[in-house]
Write a structure and sequence with these properties.
Blueprint: E1 3-6, H1 12-25, H2 34-38, H3 42-51, E2 53-58, E3 65-74, E4 77-85, H4 94-108, E5 113-119, H5 123-131, E6 135-143, E7 146-154
Parallel strand pairs: 4-5
Antiparallel strand pairs: 1-2, 2-3, 3-4, 5-7, 6-7
Helix pairs in contact: 1-3
């Protein structure tokens, strides 16, 4: 069974653990590195928790986390950030549950759209996002480590 919980400002350690697992598994997908973020201190992690709304997937309260997604409000829409599911948990609907949690949070705050950026090379993620109602916009952004396309999903 998948247990989702919304992280609070006290949850910096679980956020750190899942983020480092994310970067260890998928270093080219997130525009950062394990080495960089392993150096972050408590204040850095707590700061992230105040900038975004995070949801964590685990087998139960206190169980090991195997998925994360974050949402952030801005410019009349919410953006999905840091979406990741551990390889062993993929194919179980975890991504759909995490995205639904972020979409519900965004809709509760009045956002009409949930947007994201997906790496050009991450075809698996792109297919998953399309199955979950996201549509490619044709808007591309190139950052130092990757080229990303914007995708959107209506929340209305």
């Amino acid at each position: 069974m998948v247990h989702l919980r919304k992280l609070t400002d006290a949850d910096w350690r679980p956020l750190r653990e899942i983020r480092l697992a994310t970067l260890a598994d998928s270093p080219s997908a997130f525009g950062s590195t394990y080495a960089q973020e392993a150096e972050f201190g408590e204040a850095d992690w707590r700061g992230r928790l105040t900038q975004r709304t995070y949801f964590l997937a685990s087998d139960g309260p206190g169980g090991e986390a195997f998925g994360v997604a974050a949402g952030k409000a801005g410019d009349g829409e919410w953006t999905l950030h840091s979406m990741w599911v551990a390889p062993a948990a993929r194919g179980r609907g975890v991504a759909a549950r995490l995205i639904k949690a972020v979409a519900d949070e965004a809709a509760a705050h009045g956002a009409p759209v949930l947007a994201l950026q997906v790496a050009e090379s991450n075809t698996g993620a792109r297919r998953a996002y399309e199955r979950l109602g996201f549509v490619a916009t044709g808007e591309w952004e190139t950052v130092p480590s990757m080229r990303r396309e914007r995708m959107v999903r209506s929340l209305t």
